Amino acid sequence: MRLTLFFRLFIPLALIMLLGLLAFSALNHFFPQQSVFSLMGVAIATLLLCAMRLRADLQDMLTMFRTLAGTVLSYRDGDFSFGLHWRRNDEIADLVETHNELGRVLREQRLDLVQRELLLDTMLQNTPVAMILVAENASIVFANIAARQLLNQGRKLEGFSLTYLQENVSPALRDALSSGADGLFSASSKHTSNSNTADGTSDVNEDEEEIYHLSRRHFSLNGRRHELLLLRHLTTELRRQEVQTWKKVIRVISHELNNSLAPVASLAVSGAELLRRGNVERLPEIFSTIEERSRHLEEFIAGYARFAKLPQPNRQHLAWGGFISRLQSQMSFQLIDDEHALTGFFDPAQMEQALLNLLKNAHESGSSPQDIHLAVRRMHQAIRIDVSDHGGGMNEQIMAQALVPFYSTKRSGTGLGLALSREIIEAHGGRILLTNLERGGTVIGLTVSLILPD
Fold first, then answer.
1. pTM of the model
2. Hey, which of 128, 131, 161, 177 has its CA 20 to 30 A from 311?
3. Could you tell me if 293 and 264 are in contact, meaning their C-beta atoms sit under 8 angstroms apart?
4. Fold identical between 127-190+204-233 and 316-453?
5. In the 8-state DSSP scheme, what is residue 161?
6. Which residues touch 204 (CB under 8 Å, ≥6 apart)?
7. CB of 452 closer than 8 Å to CB of 378
8. Greatest CA span in the chain, whole angstroms?
9. Per-residue pLDDT tens for 327-375?
10. Where are the domains of the chain?
């Protein structure tokens, strides 16, 4: 049976007062001349009994309230392992039940969180990517197994200073960690291999070059700035890509050499046969064709040499207006947003080569000269150069491969024009973007954008 707190407290008090009233009536009946003293005595006794009863009830309630306050402090400290019990069926019982339900929910959430943290820690510890979390004071907060192996430490790195650990690593890794930027670096590692000798098989320690990529991310954790260092081992992946690239280079060079040498050999045989017969009228034509194929092959090899031997840019402060004017004298295009006051910091020879490659591609796309546009604009802390044409654009597959060296959709293309332009722009600290021009949902051309730091 449910009894509310109000009735549980005040019904006993009402009964005590009723008994006091009955006692006063009895005393007044037997001792009428002492009614005042009887009233005072009964009133004092009634008040004492009410106070004792109320104190007993309130003592249990105050004890429960103190217990509830203690459990809240325990919840704050992360301890949800206990519950409370109230023997009466009243409002305090509802409060205790709600409190216990809160503890149960928090306990389940804490258990789920612990399991998730355990799973996350297992994944982070066993990932091949070395992860190092550094606090604002350069002390290491977290480092996984791969990080400990990379830094040649047999113990945990947490608590050590990153500056202190850099003293015991390879110079390449130390320079990469000190640079403050993302990038690739190489580090030597000991590799044990078997060597057959006259006395038998022995183990030989060889230095092997390992390639890593370092990336940095900054964020705030608990109100403090932290830096996350991610070092990924790329040796196997880069070697696989290197093999694929070499295969592609060999296929392209082999195809181009066959296309030039096979006709030259055939023409040489034909010329020798004609000379043997005394028919020399066609020899000039044959020699001209041989010269043309030889020149094409020479230009082909020269293109590869330029791509392979691209020097570091010799940057100069130049006005874009004069540079674009010299460019227009070599290849026709329409200039948009002509801003002669714009200046840049670039290598004029390399930038000229990059833009000539883009303009040459625009002319070879089938676009008419009046539809080939070049625009130079100032962006936020950057200069943007757009070369646009109306040659029909590129589909997704071609656009995804267009900047890859040796990839070409042209019959006689080398696949080095866009790749060389990208190499030049990235050497200047910029980037290159390809975007299709659309009109009414139809692709009508291509825009190649060069973004250079201002």
1. 0.43
2. 177
3. yes
4. no
5. B
6. 192, 193, 194, 195
7. no
8. 171
9. 888 888 888 876 656 888 888 888 998 898 889 888 888 888 888 999 9
10. 5-108, 127-190+204-233, 251-308, 316-453
